[in-house]
Amino acid sequence: MTPTRKPADLSKLFRARSIALVGATEKSTWCQILLGGIRASGYAGELHLVNPKGGEVFGRAAFTSCVAIGRAVDIAVIMVPAGVVLGVLEDVAAAGIRYAVVLTSGFAELGEQGARIQDELIDRARSLGLSLFGPNSLGFINYIDNVPAIVLPPMVKRAGPVAVVSQSGATAGAIMGFAQQQGVGLSYAVTLGNEAMIGLAEVLDFLIDDESTKAVAVFAESIRDPRAFMASAARAHAARKPIVILKVGTSELTAKVAQAHTGALVGDDKVFDSACRQLGLARVGSIEELVQTAALLAYTGPITQRSLGLVSISGGACEMVADNAETFGVALPQFGEETLAALRGVLSEMGASTHNPLDVTGAAVTKPEMFENVLRIAGSDPGIGITATVCGLPDEASKISKFNTVALAHIGRGIQASGKPGVLLTQTLQPVSELSLKLLEESGVPFALCGLDDGIQALGHAFAWSASLDRAVYRPLPPSAAAVARPRSERETLEYLAASGVPVIPAVTATSSAQAVMAAAEALGPVVLKIASPDIAHKTEAGGVLLNLADDAAVAEGYARILANVAKAQPDARIDGVIVSPMRAKGSELFVGIARDPQWGLAIAVSLGGVWVEALQDSSLRLLPVAAGEIRAMFEELRAAKILRGYRGQPAVDLDAVAQVVERIAQAAIALGPDLVSLEVNPLYVGPDGRIECLDALAIWNDTPAPSH
Predict the structure, then answer these.
(1) β 508-510/243-247 pair status
(2) Among candidates 494, 508, 421, which has minimal Cα distance to 458?
(3) For residue 531, what are the β-bridge partners?
(4) Residue 226, preceding bond cis, omega within 30 degrees?
(5) Alpha carbon of 342 to those of 349, 413, 421: distances in Å?
(6) Would the pTM of this model clear 0.85, i.e. be above it?
(7) Domain 588-701: which topology?
(8) Which phi and psi (to 5°) does residue 693 adopt?
C-alpha cells in the first residue's frame, strides 16, 4: 500500500454533463423523485429519457434505447427490473456510455442467489468496458457542479465543504437532513449500494482529490475491502484531509479465538476501533456527531495547538464543559501570566474570574464588547489553539435581540483579532437556519457548533485527528507467505518463541513422577507444575497448576495430583505430560495476545496478565505490524498503567524493555504465516530484578481442535 497510488478517475461519473434515465416511466415513484430533483435543481446538463416503448414520458419525448439518443452521454441511470438489467447494459455500452448507475435492487443484498446474479452482472459489465455504480443504490448528488442523480430530495440548500458517503440510502437521507438542519453545506452525497465495482475506497479517492471537499463523512455497515480502504485512508492522511466515520456492526473473530483470552480482548469491533486510530480516522457514534465533527474539521483543518480556550456568558456552561472536556479529550490549559494580567485589566471591575473556562458573567449583557476584548487576549495565549464562545444564536426572527447582533459582532471581531480559529458554541443542539447563517456571516463568526456535549465531543475528535497527522500512518502486512513449522503444544510454542529471540522460562515436560522430580532438582529451587495438554486452555480451573513445590516429595505428590485433577475435570483431554519450571519470585504479570481478524488480519492486545486478563477487561489493541515505541504507548493506555509505573511499593516495570520483547513476540507471530489463528503469552513475567520471561504460551491454528471447557 502506498499513499501515492493512482486512483480511478470518476470525474465523468460524479461531474456528468449528460444523463440518460433508463426505464423512465410516469408509473415509477423513483423516477418521479429523481426527475423532480433534477428539474428542481435546474440541472444545466443534457437529460435524456429512455423507455423501450418510446412516446412521451413526463411531457418529454422518450428514446427507445440509449443507442437511439445518437450522441455522447456521460452516465446512464438504470431503474429497470433486475431481470432486465443485463440486457440494458448491452445497450448502454453500445451507445458509448462508460458509467452505469444501477438503482435497481434484487442482487447481492438478497443473499447467495442474488450474489450469483450480481457476479454475472459484474462479468458482463467488465466485458463491455462499463463501470457500475451500485446496484441497489439511491445514486448520488454533486452539489458543487449541480448533478442530482439521486432518488432522495436534494435537501441541502447550499453547497459546502463536507462530502457524505453512505452504504445505506435511507441513512444518507437522514445525514443530509441533519446537515440541512445544522446549516452544513455539502459538496457531494453518495449512496454506495452494493459496491459491485465502484466501492467505498474508490469514492474516497475521488473525494480526497476533490478541491471543494474539505472533510468526508462516512456511514458504513461493513468494510468490504479492508486493504483498499486502508490505502485510501493513507492517501487522506498524506493529503491531510479528514475522514470521519460512523460504522455500525462488529468485526467478529473466529470461534476458536473467542475461546482463548485473546478473543475477549480483541472481539466485537475493537479491531476496527484500532484500525481507525492507526489510520488517522475519526470514529464517531451518531449521525449528529458525524455531521458536526466533519463540519468542524472542514472549517479548522489540522489544529496545531490542540487546546481549547472557552469563553462563556454562562457560568453553568463553563462548569458543564469543564466536567466533560477530559472525557472527550479536550485540554483546557490555564492561561499564561501575560494573558492573566491582560485579562485582569479587562475583567477586574466585573468581578469575573480569569481561569479557563472563562466566565465573563452577565456583565457582558451591558458590555458586549467584553467578548471581543477577552477573545483577543485569551485566543492570543501561546497555549491556546482554538477558542469557543458560548452564546446564543437565533434561528428565527422573533428571537433576535439587539444584544444578539451586537454580541455576535464583537465575538467575530475577537476571533479575527486572536489570530486563531474560533467557533461559536450554543448550549443546546439547536437548528442553524438560513437566518442563523446570515447572522454569522454578517458578524464575521466563521463557524457554529451546537450543543455543549456535541460541540466539545467534536472538538475532541478534531484534536485527535490533528494529532494523528504527527504519526506515520499504519501500513498493513503484505499477503502472508509460507510459514515455519507449526508449534502445537505449550512447550513447542515456548521453544519457537525462544528460537525467535524471545526470553522464555526454562522448562521440562515430564511424563513420569521420576522425571518430574529429576527436573525439579535441576531447577535448584521451588518449582511450578502445569499440565501439558492441547485440549486444556484454562489449566488452573482444571486443577492443572501447582505452585511453589520445594522438595522431591512435594513434586512427586504434585505430579500425581495434577493428573488426578485433570482426569476428573476433563477426562477426554489429551495429556502430553506435566511441565516443570522454576518458581519465579513475585513480580508483574502481563498478557500478550495476537489474533487474526477475518477482515483486518493480525491484531495484538496487551493487558495485565494472569487472572486479571478477563477480570479487568482493560486492554489496548493495535493491528500488526507495530513497533516497540507504539507497544510502549499501548501499555501506557491501560487503566492499570499506574500499577506498571510502581504502585504501593511494587517495583516499576521497564516498559521500554517489555515493549522490545513484545515486538519480538509479534514478529514471531507474523512469521507463523496465514494459518495462525492466535498466539497467546500469559503471563509475560517481569521480575523485581528486571528479568522478563514468557511463562506460558499457546498457538491456535485453523485446524486446531477446540479446547475443552
Answers:
(1) unpaired
(2) 421
(3) 578
(4) no
(5) 13, 18, 20
(6) yes
(7) D-amino Acid Aminotransferase; Chain A, domain 1 (3.30.470)
(8) -150, 145
Distances (CA, A) of 447 to 144, 188, 519: 20, 20, 73
Which residues are within 8 A (CB) of 177 and not within 5 positions of it... i.e. 6 or more apart?
A: 155
Q: Which CATH number fits domain 506-582: 3.90.1150.30, 3.40.50.720, 3.30.1490.20, 3.30.70.1230?
A: 3.30.1490.20
| Angular region, 183: left φ>0, alpha ψ -120 to 50, beta rest | left
Q: How many whole angstroms separate alpha carbon 490 and alpha carbon 138?
A: 54
Cell numbers given for 702: 485453523
Say whether the peptide bond before residue 582 is cis (omega within 30 degrees of 0).
Answer: no
> How far is Cα of residue 135 from the mean position of the Cα atoms in its chain?
26
Collapsing DSSP states into helix, strand and coil, what is residue 705? coil
Q: Low-confidence residues of the chain, pLDDT below 70?
A: 1-7, 250-268, 349-352, 480-483, 610-616, 649, 704-709
For the stretch 604-624, pLDDT in tens is 999 988 666 666 678 899 999
Q: Determine the topology of domain 11-295 in CATH.
A: Rossmann fold (3.40.50)
- Tell me which fold the domain 303-468 belongs to: Rossmann fold (3.40.50)
pLDDT digits (tens, 9 = 90+) for 635-649: 999 988 888 988 776
**Domain spans in the chain, listed from the N-terminal domain onward:** 11-295, 303-468, 506-582, 588-701
